[in-house]
Amino acid sequence: CMKYAPEPILEMKTRRVRGIDSSVRKLVGDMIETMHANCGVGLAANQVGVPLRIAVIQLPDDERETILVNRQVLSRDGYRELDEGCLSIPGYQGLVKRSAVVKVRAWGSDPASPPRGRFRPGQPRSPARPVTLILSCGSEATPWRAAFSRTPCRG
Fold it and tell me: Which of these, 19, 79, 83, 149, has the minimum number of CB atoms within 10 Å of its CB?
């Protein structure tokens, strides 16, 4: 069920996912379905009422969704102003200053082979791999990817 501003969960810091199990897989599937049903290009778990650090992205030209679990921003470069909206604020669009290039590390970013198991503090996160999200001046879709990697997942 979508959450809309000003619901407090949209401003809460999200929690790290401790492990990937059937409930997390179901949540991701539900998020993808909700994103498609609302004609969105991205959705964070807190937008469906779950305060976990999970986001899904699928741009118009993408064949499949990108899943970001426990995403961590590694670097940002450049800025660009974008006209963007948010599924949690229906009908609103505004000009927002966003990073042009965002490099993130996320666990389970490939939906074709979702990771299994648990995160263990102090253990290397080998399933995590850096995903570079790049804004390209030649594409209308790619600005959304760089912008979405920063919002609305609070964490």
Answer: 83
Cα 12 from chain centre: 15
Name residue 129's beta-bridge partners: 106
* 133 backbone dihedrals φ, ψ, rounded to 5°: -105, 115
What is the Cα–Cα distance from 132 to 148, expressed in whole angstroms?
A: 13
Sheet containing strand 66-86, strands side by side: 42-44, 54-57, 66-86, 89-107, 128-134
pTM score: 0.75
Positive/negative CA dihedral, 114, 118, 124, 125:
positive
How far, in Å, are 64, 84, 142, 152 from residue 80 at the CA level? 26, 12, 12, 18
Enter the tokens of residue 113.
Answer: 């082979």
Structure tokens at 71: 């995403």
